[in-house]
């Protein structure tokens, strides 16, 4: 049974076992590397009557980066990329929510990676809601945004013999969210 949007108003937490925060990066100019962060937490206040009054924040543990290749993951945790020992968190905090259609929303906020904060706008699709077998009301959202890693001070690269570079500048951040209403 789907709950009307107005009845979704309330406080939510991300369900880490049913939420994916991932990324896609161009590698060697010819393919893409996909990965995810496995440790994160997030909260949101959804206002189903006035979505512009909704808020949220996500904290991602940089140490939890996983591309399926341990040697690459270890390199991504170094100062060449995320510098996980000195910057253990990537954060996103909303500054605005705009309803674009019945199911499409633009969430604007401050994304902080390492010691750099930049405003970003993430387009989300509201994928629905349901009451799970345990009585929890869940909402689903899917979204993505492309960011420049150089804008966040992540500039390491290696030149390729035939031209180009090993790691592309544009990184796609992907969000497949299941959030559980609290209280």
UniProtKB/TrEMBL annotation:
Any matching Pfam family: YceI
Gene3D superfamilies: Lipid/polyisoprenoid-binding, YceI-like
Domain Lipid/polyisoprenoid-binding YceI-like: start-end pairs: 11-180
Family membership: Belongs to the UPF0312 family.
Name used for this protein in its record: YceI family protein
Organism: Streptomyces bikiniensis
């Amino acid at each position: 049974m789907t709950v009307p949007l107005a009845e979704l108003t309330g406080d939510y937490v991300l369900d880490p076992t049913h939420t994916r925060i991932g990324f896609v990066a161009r590698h060697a100019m010819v393919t893409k590397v996909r990965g995810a962060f496995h440790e994160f937490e997030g909260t949101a206040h959804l206002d189903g009557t006035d979505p512009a009054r909704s808020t949220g924040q996500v904290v991602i543990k940089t140490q939890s980066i996983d591309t399926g290749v341990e040697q690459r993951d270890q390199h991504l945790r170094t100062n060449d990329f995320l510098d996980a020992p000195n910057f253990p968190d990537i954060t996103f905090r909303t500054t605005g929510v705009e309803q674009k259609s019945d199911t499409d929303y633009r969430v604007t906020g401050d994304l902080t990676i390492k010691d750099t904060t930049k405003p970003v706008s993430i387009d989300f699709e509201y994928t629905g809601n349901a009451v799970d077998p345990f009585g929890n009301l869940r909402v689903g959202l899917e979204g993505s945004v492309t960011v420049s890693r150089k804008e966040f001070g992540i500039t390491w690269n290696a030149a390729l013999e035939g031209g180009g570079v090993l790691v592309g500048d544009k990184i796609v951040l992907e969000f497949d969210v299941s959030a559980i209403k609290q209280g």
